[in-house]
Amino acid sequence: MTVYILDKDPTAGNWVMHHLREIGIQACYMSSVADLLAESDHRAPLVCLVGLRPPVQQALSLVAELSQEPRFAQTSFLVMGPTQYKRSAFESGADDYIATPPEVIELRKRVRMYLDHAALEARVMAEVRITQEFEALSHEEKSSPDAGSDSSLTLLEHAAALTQERNLLEAVLRYAGEAIALVDMTGLVLYANPVWTRLVGHIGSQGMQLDWSAMFDNPMTIENIGAALRAGNEWRGEVRYRLPEGRWMDVEMSATPARDATGDIIGYVIVQHDVAERKAIEAIKTRFLADASVELRTPVTNIKMRQYLLRQAPPEQRAMHLQALERETERLSHLIDAMLELSRLDLGLVRISCESVDLNRILADATIRYAPVAEDKGVTLALTRNPSLGPVQADPIQLARAVGALIDNAILYTPEGGHIEVRLGHEAWTGGEFATIQIRDTGIGIEAREMPHIFERFYRSDRARDAGMRGVGLGLAIAQEIISRHNGDITVESQVNQGSLFTIWLPLKSCE
Description:
Radius of gyration: 30 Å
Strand content: 15-25%
Structural class: alpha/beta
CATH architecture of the largest domain: 2-Layer Sandwich
Mean pLDDT: 81
Number of domains: 4
Strand order of the largest sheet: 2-1-3-4-5
Low-confidence stretches: none
CATH class of the largest domain: Alpha Beta
Distance between the termini: 40 Å
């Protein structure tokens, strides 16, 4: 499976190629359209990544021309460029758009999705071919009832080979994550895998007539799909899809003509991929960028203001302004550290060491470190040790970071006059022995509907946003990731306006 990368910037193009090759994708970088066309004469790519460079309109026109080239009929074009050109790229014929600078994980995931999509279509087309060969064999057997034993044996061997190939293909399609259906020219569903049946329900199940109007909300979408298929072309795009229970979901869909041995169209293959997760991630990223920009802007603005006041202040007031500068600098540093830590976790750069760790010492250090923060807010912070608990095997730096994130979170959501207690305990269960680290606060609590989301990256509750609380929703996500890499877990209990209890469950042999 080949991926071509077309980009005027060799640094960007080679960067993309390197990160795709690292996960086993066969990728080739090309700096000119001439190279792309020459290489595609021998083998057209399944995916073509196009870097959007000035002049932008000319680049978009190029995408439109390439997408109409017959040699690229089976190629998915993914454009990479600034967010503001996303709509124009889709209007020019792009199958997808990746905002720059691209994140490595998102880039790989998006390219892999299109490669998997192409592989699924190839398997379904193979099913069409096998069906046709079975029909041809049946016809040959009926037309030659008096054929010799050698001829009959050949037919049986061919039939057995086809049966084995069909069984293998059906197993692959049955357990594919995408919804797949084969529909004839009249709209009759000839084949539907379980995912398709689950999504579509009775209106489009195997043996039923496909009702496009019952599936999509946009008549133009139905017309565009029909026009493409009548012309013998593939249609690909994002559509809103009505589920059997009545709610709508976003899917990425392709409809590809299926042809017989003579090249005549006998139906079409439909593959649908749920993009709700991707859209949710995009929404979270957009919200995160908005939050991060505000969080970064606030300390920077305050630092600039304090610098100005410091220059104007009399000597007796300079210490006050210097302290304020230190607080804002620390706040900015904390935010940047959290963002970098998240990036390192995403890239798999965080390694857990296995050392003998005194948890009493870890918690004491964390409590001392966050005591000034709690005091500034008018919150008391207490520690209950467990002298009987011996050392555990863990990464002291990462564990301290996770504990610190939970304490910082408790301080953030506990109002003035509140109390936070950090307690070290020991629990024995059938699954083994655990050290427990509890952080209990008397804060605003967590609503039940928000509980499933609090460990999601970038998530912040509506109450936190409305109250203008600092933070971008990274602390709990980082803490959970660190503890999970110690083979542990974090549980939470909470009641609105009553406070929350976060418990770290750390196996005594967590990293052996």
